[in-house]
Amino acid sequence: MTFYRLFAALCALALASCAAMPPPDTAQSAAPPVTEAQAETLVQPFVIAANPLAARAGMEVFERGGSAADAAVAVQAMLSLVEPQSSGMGGGTFINYYNAAEESVVIYDGREVAPAQASRTMFLDADGEPIGFRDAVVSGRATGVPGAVAALAMVHEAHGSLPWSQLFGSAIATADEGFIVSPRLGRFLTIDFPQLSVPDADSYFSRPDGTRLQIGDRLRNPDYADFLRRLAANGPDALYRGETAARIVERTRQGPLGGTMTMADLANYRPVVREPVCRPWQGYRVCVPPPPSSGVGFLQLLGLLDRTDIAERGPDDPQAWYLFAEASRLMYADRDRYVGDVPTVPIDGMLDPAYLDSRAALIGPRSAENVEAGTPPGASETVTDMTREPAGTSHFIVRDAQGNVISMTTTVESIFGTGRMVDGFFLNNQLTDFSFNPYQADGSLAPNAVAPGKRPRSSMIPLIMVDGEGAFAGAIGSAGGNSILAYVGKSLVGAVLWGLPMQDALALPNLIARSNRIGGEVGDFDPAIVEGLAERGIDLEPGQGEDSGVHAVIIRDGGRVDGGYDPRREGAVLVGE
Length: 577
Description:
The protein is of the alpha+beta class. The protein contains 20 helices and 21 strands. A hairpin with a 5-residue loop joins β10 and β11.
């Protein structure tokens, strides 16, 4: 299991240019002896992540006999350093965990929560109007109590093999010695994100002469290395209590638009263990997180597509993409209407077979001019929530030699979170996932409104599939804000319905059809597809397809690992032998 294959040429380049990976602590934990009976049940471990250094950090844990829970901690610690635009220790997560021994799936909800003193009007100005989005995303009040570290600690306590203190060596060494600014990170540093004007981010990404770092420069983060040493020694209390917690509170309360977070908010944060929502699909059982995740919307999309003939078509058929677009529009209409406030989400109603039949029947030969939400069984009266959801997110998948799997979507919300930093990591702006205006036109409370201790709606849907016998069969997830559901849907259609290799499925052009807004990677579609969609009433416009970050794996016949990373990012697939 100590040998691996790298399916990303970029990984080799990045590893060659970066600091050595072994932890500074020379006391390594060796893998325990494997009996002959155990050897017969071992499977290929793998790590799929958006950055090759993060993937290598996870594989290094496996080489020392670590579990999937151990590897996930190491991967996230590295991502926080080398992909700070997407996720980090100051953010939140949903973790989908497959227990191989029990053939069970459980969800760990590490979503950020609003502080106890948060108010429903916190994103309104003095005139009662929503504040500007660019002002909100860099504000102190945008930061929710972070949950990623607490959720990882909970998973590690339940499923870890190596000591917590031995999971941060790779990230510590890289933070101390520095890493090479990658093309993706370097490109983001040239874009006019409001976060880069925040003094913390501006200083962090500046050279000694004051100019901005560029691709190929070395970036060191000694503050983060020091924090990780304390996190390794003291556990999650290093973030939720003590000096780091005090600095988080201080930084979020500073203007402009300071927040209300307290030390008590951090100390009282608890992840939530939830039952997944699972449904059969194409011979698999697909399991996603329940609300506040939008997993139920994604399962609805699969159900709608099953009621079309998209599986009999292929990526070169305009009708296939038309069906995907129309099913997506119907799904998003329902998702935006009903997946806003827990516990009123009509999960069973949205997935009711008769209701899905009625919704799929709305897909005609030509695109509908308007798509509205239906009325699933058990739905209460509500209105559509069109909350903006930025795309600063990452997804990774790890499987250990015992067959345990973690599919984890992790985020700081917008690119570089709020741009505010504490101890070398960015603070999230996750509370901008709430509706800025808490009131409807009639004065009643809007869906997804801010409330103390509340977790905002999320589009993150880390997914795990099992086969008919309960064995692990695949996993997938993505970055991309509300487009995540479309990105993951397209990828599973390609890999499962059209039988494409996973890497080819992820490389298919993205098409995002949310209600009456349809966009995608127009230039990557064959002109015949674009023309065929236009003939069916869909004028495809440039969208945000480049923001996808789909990472996925499916177990093919004979147990072969067919993994893929999104070619729009800098991912890697490492598979043990």
